[in-house]
Amino acid sequence: MAEDLSYIVSEINNHARYNLQLLEETQLLSGNGSDANIKGLLSRDIQKMVQDTDSDPDRIFKARTKIALATGFRADALVINPADYEAIRLSKDANGQYYGGGYFNGQYGNGTIMQDPPLWGLKTVVTEAIAQGTALVGAFKLGGAVIRKGGLRAESTNSHSDDFTNDLITFRVRERLGLQVKYPKAFVSVALGKKAK
User: Fold this and answer.
1) Domains in the chain: ranges and CATH
2) How is 75-113 classified by DSSP, letter by letter?
3) C-alpha distances in Å from residue 100, one per residue of 108, 116, 197
4) DSSP strand E in the chain: where?
5) Each residue's pLDDT tens digit, 24-82
6) What is the share, in percent, of the chain residues with pLDDT greater than 90?
7) Buried b vs exposed e over 152-175: b needs ≥16 C-beta within 10 Å?
8) What is the pLDDT of residue 172?
């Protein structure tokens, strides 16, 4: 099939690249550092905020303040799970108006609707790579860096193991990268949800 339909190889490579990028996000956030795993941000000695009685948006804002007080840096991004982002995005005031604007335009009919609008001005990355119930606020530009060696490599062969005799092709997509965290206090893990009273 790979010989007869050239787009199949491209399709497989594209899908494999997407899966690798999701794995990369997961490793950068929560990798445990063992073997070939990256020691992710959530596995480092970063600041933490536990559940409290105030709202999730309030604690996300307070995380910005924690970063500023500990490092002097300004938080520039938020990483949040799609389910948690949805809960915040669909929250309404006492009048039934969405805080972040409705599905046709902004709050109370003002402005335009944005897809995945930022919370508190932070670039908001909505990804399933972070566990539901946890948000990560950080000064990503100053606090750390992803170090890459080379680029993303997609390779295929039919000479691995018994692929040739079974008319199989093995695909491999890989990249080399590391995570440097210069300032652990430039990141805050926020436990979402209200603390039980």
Assistant:
1) 6-191 (3.30.2320.10)
2) P-EEEE-HHHHHHHHT-B-TTS-BTT--SSSSGGG-S--
3) 10, 10, 28
4) 47-49, 77-80, 123-126, 134-138, 144-157, 170-181, 187-191
5) 899 999 999 899 889 999 999 999 999 999 999 999 999 999 999 999 999 999 999 99
6) 55
7) bebebeeeeeeeeeeeebeeebee
8) 76
Supply 185's token pair.
């206090």
Tell me the backbone φ, ψ of residue 188, rounded to 5 degrees.
-135, 125
- State the Cα–Cα distance between residues 79 and 138, nearest whole angstrom: 9
Q: Nearest to residue 57, comparing CAs of 76, 41, 80?
A: 80
- For residue 81, which phi and psi values (nearest 5 degrees)? -70, 145
Phi, psi of 42 (to 5 degrees): -70, -15
H helix or E strand, kind and range, residue 20: helix 6-30
3-state secondary structure of 116: coil
The pTM assigned to this predicted structure is 0.82
Q: How far apart are CA 59 and CA 97, in angstroms?
A: 22
Lowest pLDDT segment from 106-110, 164-168, 174-178: 106-110
CB 76 within 8 A of CB 140: yes
